[in-house]
Specification:
By secondary structure, the protein is an alpha/beta fold. The chain contains 6 helices and 9 strands, in the order H-E-E-H-H-E-E-E-E-E-H-H-E-H-E.
Amino acid sequence: MIEKHFNNGYREEGNIKIPILPVASELPTFGQFRYWYAKELDLRQSITAREGKRGFVLRHRAVLGNSTRMAIGPGSIYRIDATIADVYLVSSFDRSMIIGRPVIYMVIDVFSRMITGLYIGLEGPSWIGAMMALANATMDKVAFCAEFGIEISGQEWPCHYLPETILADRGELEGVNTDNLVDSLNIAVANTPPYRGHRQFLQ
């Protein structure tokens, strides 16, 4: 690049043009090059051109806040989400038969980070799975743990209430069923924009 843009002309040796460069003190240094490159570079435009607007917003945008700031206290907002476990379950009758990968639903209180409900099933992410997890969030956890032979006190897991708002990622909590949930239980439902499930994240 220096030979192309900072030469004082060319000299010919045979049929080859060789650039004539000024003395080193008159040439830009690599540090100067980096300074002006960083000064003139529009990083947002460069990344958007390479990955598209959606890719920039999803992976490179400035993070100005998180869902915690929306919660005014415990029980204000519950976040609900599902993930497919990275394990395969086998039949209890025939261990050579794979019955599928379980779907794990978690309901988390955004303010306190406490797990308030959970559900594990074999059906894919669905309205039923989400409602089973929400039902577990309202269940007395002493009785719930007792079903599995675990003894706890009510103070160890004091979560058996409905929230004011449920935060989801436009998966199961959309449509007519969600409208019925809002009307019957007087709960607000907030969904993140399309392809923006990361807006649920907790720090």
